[in-house]
Design brief:
Layout: E1 2-5, H1 9-17, E2 25-30, H2 39-50, E3 55-61, E4 67-72, H3 73-81, H4 83-95, H5 98-101, E5 112-113, H6 118-128, E6 132-136, E7 142-147, H7 148-159
Parallel strand pairs: 1-2, 2-3, 5-6
Antiparallel strand pairs: 3-4, 6-7
Helix pairs in contact: 2-3, 6-7
Amino acid sequence: MVIVEKADPAALKQVLDEYDASEPIVMTVPVDGRGRYTRRALLEYLNTLGHLRTFKFVVFLDGDGAFVGYAPNWLVRGFLERRGLAEEFVRTLNSGRTKSLRTYPGIVTEAITTSHTNAHALREMDRLNLEALVVVNDEKRVAGIVERDQVLSKMLLALAP
């Protein structure tokens, strides 16, 4: 998995220069109260990464870098393209109010840990009606993403003689 932090334009350029179509890409957005985001800059990142087939999610992190929630890139782009909602959404990101961020429709606040099984991942995907989940470590740092197809493939291969 390739992680691109919104705050680092050099990382975005490096991802584009070294793009590997086999690795999923997530964009992290620290919601730390530093007030550094603009609607235009966020849309620029989303539109640039949106051209890459494996760009999956925007993952929101708190001031310590711990997982807060995530959403598909198309949903975040939709928030930013609606004028009234865009200003409110950017204000929420800039203020560091992670609890307010969790109230936006479609923001997924649940993740699985690296210690969970494939069966647990599938149950959670079914329960949440999702095709993929963010995986976090014990410190709630993003460790990766897991997609339904990957889990099913691994489980079927484990059954093969």
